[in-house]
Amino acid sequence: MSDPIGLDEFPAFVREAFGYLPFPWQEAYLRAVATGADWPDLDVPTALGKTSLIDIWVFLLAWQAAQGSNRTIPLRLFFAVDRRLVVDQAHEHAERLADVLGQAEPGSVCGRVAAALSKLGGGDEPLSVVRMRGGVDWASRWLRSPAQPAVVVSTVDQYGSRLLFRGYHTTPRMRPIDAALTGFDALLALDEAHLSQALLTTARDCAAYQATATDPYFAARALKVVSLSATTDDSGRPRLGVGPEDRAHPVAGRRLHANRRVTLLDVSTWAKPPTEAFARGATTAVNALLPHIERPVVAVVANTIASARAAFQSLSARDDLDVLLLTGRCRDGERTNLVEGPLSELLNGVDPHRSRPLIVVATQTIEVGLDVSVAGMCIEAAAWDAVLQRLGRLDRTGDLALAPAVLVRSHAPDDVRTIPVYGEAAAHTWDWLASHTPVLDQPGATEELEQALASGLLLNPSTLPELRTGIDISALTAPSLRIPVVHRTVLDSWARTDPAPVPDQVPAPFLHGMDTSPADVQVLWRADLPWEDGTTPLWEVWAARLAQTPPHPGETVAVPVHRLRRFLVRQAEADACGDLEGAPDPEQAPNKRGMARSQVLPALHWDGPGDWAPALTPEDVRPGCTVVLPSAVGGHDAFGWTGVAGTAVVPDLGDFSLGDALAATRLDADVITSLTGRAGQTVKLRELLGDAIGRLQSGDDQEPTTEVVRDLLTAVIELLPTALPEPTGTDRFTQRLLARLVLLRGGVAQWDLTASARPGVGHVVIGTASDDLRLMLIPPRVPNGLLESVPGVGDEEADSSSLTRLVGLAQHGKGVGARAADFAQRVGLPQPAIAGTEIAGQAHDCGKQHPRFQTMLCGGDALLAEALPEPLAKSGIDPADLAGRRTAARLAGWTPGMRHEALSAAAVQRWLSDDPAMTIGLDTDLIIHLVATHHGRGRPLLPPVPDPDPLEVECTMPDGQQVTVSSTTMGVDWNGPDRFAALMDRYGPWGTAMLETIVRLADMSVSEEGS
What we know:
Elements: H1 10-18, H2 24-34, E1 41-43, H3 53-67, E2 76-81, H4 89-102, H5 109-121, E3 128-132, E4 150-155, H6 156-163, H7 175-183, E5 186-191, H8 197-210, H9 216-220, E6 224-228, E7 239-241, H10 244-247, H11 252-256, E8 260-266, H12 274-289, E9 297-301, H13 305-316, E10 322-326, H14 332-340, H15 342-348, E11 358-362, E12 376-380, H16 384-391, E13 403-409, H17 424-434, E14 439-440, H18 446-453, E15 457-458, H19 464-468, H20 488-495, H21 508-512, E16 521-526, H22 539-548, E17 557-559, H23 561-568, E18 604-606, E19 613-614, E20 626-630, E21 636-637, E22 640-641, E23 665-668, H24 669-676, H25 682-697, H26 705-719, H27 734-747, E24 750-752, E25 761-766, E26 774-778, E27 806-808, H28 809-827, H29 831-843, H30 851-857, H31 862-866, E28 872-875, H32 882-892, H33 900-912, H34 924-932, E29 952-956, E30 962-966, H35 976-987, H36 989-1008
Parallel strand pairs: 1-7, 2-4, 2-5, 3-4, 5-6, 8-13, 8-14, 9-11, 9-12, 10-11, 12-13, 16-20, 24-25
Antiparallel strand pairs: 8-15, 16-17, 18-19, 18-20, 21-22, 23-26, 25-26, 27-28, 29-30
């Protein structure tokens, strides 16, 4: 039991962490949950601190852990939103809190909270913070322990697909772990939930199914769901919102009564294309707003990327304004440049004395997650809820005497169904607002607009209730989605992750409704893919180079599949899609008439396990796949996806995964110039590379490889400019490249042409073709070889589970069993389940005692395997050495696809048939299942690969008994499906997955520690 924590210490906790006191509604919510309320929905307007739910959850979890009583507060909080965000300030808020807890003084409130959380999680980190988002580099194994308290900030797609056992861009073997962590002993907070009704409904359906588990403990740990929305909700669930104390509060009250005045401007006749009309309207609105705003910052918010770019182009042509463009469809590299560059001033507070006003042009990405405050706003006409979200960024603090906004209609009113993203809801919202305030429509009527600003319609949380009295606002919002019901048969199908059923139900309709677009495509660009327009690429060269430098999430951007298809056939114009996840895409399929194959831009696509394949037609690009394009075709600039081919070269970010300061780096002239924007240096760079390669291949022992590499790095560094580039310039990644090359030159003690496990020795890989003027520099691996390839990720080879040092089987089994029991106890599982996971952990690898498997672990040396003093669990072969692992399997006669866990499960099943004393009273079906699934397979069937040369194998059981089992049992266990179904009924789909996760994470963590 930790030092006690009192509920009345919550204000002191918030003040220690953030320097301010909580609002009254926050304290009321905390006490409601602490006294038994089941996480009521939150009805709190923008700017009143909904992200403080993170603080409330952290404090309650620590408070309950310190009491030592049975825990009811979930271990993990997922904060989800349906926007593609430029800045995720919920994530930044959680990280700040985690930092405070990690450095808190013992005995302080934060110190006691940190101590309670650390004891609960069993590690040194009180709180983990994870960002789970497409386009962001986050590890496939994002929590090392199932008991670790964690805040996970996510999009609807990333969270929802994992909850449904179909995580986007994850391997089938990792999906049960993701599902367990998202759907069991977890709290989902859905921000602006009225915009994510499909996920809200689906998550509650999933929670209801888990609550039907026959084991009461596992039923009680079903997912909790809380809606964060100020929009009316008819779900019937309890809701908690602001009260009289908040309205009278000196800070909250001012925010609730902000003087936001909305004026309407109809520009639909000013230009035929709505994008151009909006750009003209935005210019007029900005001209009218600037003389009347109290701080020099204005936001221009558009419905589509095309409208935003049109307004940006118009406004950025002026020299009296600083203009910034924000869109959510943006790679993480460009996003980081914006956040650390021009956006930093907006986030930290605009200088009131800046020489030129700052104009922020944005899409829906500004509506959620970006806690900024502007002094004036121009809004493209949208649905009612979107308008309110955008107005929430106008004078958030309520400090201004006047906060004017101009609502601009750019689409002709005669066909409202063509309005992108919002359709008829935008038209009805306009008409309703027009019934409350005059509409201006004269071109160039800047003076009239100025005069109308102060008398516009007052829209703030205090006036909205009266305005909405007696009004059915359903017509002003997007029509209700057709949300499919999560039937038990569909859920059972999803839970079968390996092998997955065919056909398989896609999760998208359950996350966004039936009337939505297919899942996006993840797109990346590489500069080292040789290609000339009008020619057929050397696909095998492309595939080889991608295998050498695999894609990572930080270099990708999510694009609607129809948009990319049109881009590939050069029929795309400025992108008319918005930044709402899963929103209907009005874009039609490409026009095939007259389209020759040579017109299709070159691309490779990857749809899951398997190889990259050429996208020879637009239809080859399917929803959910990953696509790589040559950098030369364009399509992405400093602000994000453009949708237009033939623009500037896209920088190649393949070597710059987040968090990897020192990583494998390609020295290739085209890659380097894509990052520096200096195409004129290509010839010189090729000369330098050719000279270095010639020296390396000369065989001159007098000239060390290290000297050649350092000479080359120095020459390339001297070519690079040292001045800081503009964050939005073509040379925006020069400094990042320079820092990497300097680190490679000074941070690696020695370079060698052969791979080496010696500490401090890097590997130099020379291009294979005679005219391949490129090098790959691979820095030294993690010291002592303690990093194992994660089981389930990249383990398609011959039963890969390699660690770069030898580990005995008995030692490994005992370590995994003890770690699994520790995890299970910290999570709070009942004692029989704790004992079951421990036994499964001890026995999970007993099938590795197969003689040919032991030979494989010895690199294919049968004599060495026979001479071993005890069986091995880990081989010592580098997990990155695919060729070495394949060779070892071939020499050992280990048939590809055979699984050691099949033999382990058969041996355990044989042992349990004799009712060993240590298993009396335990769920033996669970023990067998946990052994069979410890690499993510066997849900419900293991691969049907039998042993072609069967033999009797003697396996050691957890109680020391020797069990002999024939390897003929390897392959399909036909009892597996019935056993799996019974466990799903007993523990629920997510409870079963959590039991597997405990054993699998224990195996991973023990392996990484070298035991």
